[in-house]
Design goal:
With 261 residues, this protein is an alpha+beta fold. It has one domain. The protein contains 7 helices and 11 strands. It starts with a helix and ends in a 6-residue tail after the last strand.
Amino acid sequence: MIALSEAVDQRPTNRGSSWRAPLIFLVVVGLIVGALVWLGPTIANNVRVSEGRLYVGAECSVETQDGTVDLSRDEAKLATTAVALAARGAETPDTSDIDPAVLQRLADGPADDAGPSLRCEGTAADDLPEQELTPTGLTPRAQQLRDDMTAVFGDQPLGGFAPGGVSQGHGAESTHYSGRGVDVFFRPITEENRREGWILAQWLIAHADDLDIQYVIFDDQIWSAHSSRGHWQTYDAPEPANDILRHRDHVHVDVLRGEPR
């Protein structure tokens, strides 16, 4: 028979664990709070809500030789404007806060071939009113787009619209017929003209939110405001898929239609 004192001595004890669990919990909470304090500004800058959608990550980014550089929308607008003005020999804004590699890539494009280097998220506004043609043959939104392009790029060879509107020469569902599309020509098709076209195309997507841009098409590539990721995609040109229909000799840009009121 085991004495009572011996039985008591043989019972397991959890005295140590009675304080370990709360201590571990407090340590974990402290680490989480510390991480939030340390990373809070980064998280706040990279998580956004727009048009009822949650966005995580930088609004824009540029693929440089050394890797991807994240940009805010304002930085992308500043960088693309500075590059466009510099190409014209005009005075440029202060870009000292932007990585020089970003400006170099936007100006020169990829080393192996002319092409896009800038990505910007699309955020198509859904509360715009539908607009009628102005005397220029463009809607007020498209006319504002034209004016802003001219302010930065100067006079350009334009097409796709005319006073009173156009009714032929484009695909059946073309935005040119509703006065919402503008074509900017870069002819003939050369390496230099393609790089200049990409300077414009990337300026357009950086300013897409301000100008209510819907699509930008150039050089077999298309950007859409309806794509939240904002990457350029391969453009599937209609037959006969010649250089014009592939948009290799011109940048096409159009604005959102809006809804009837």
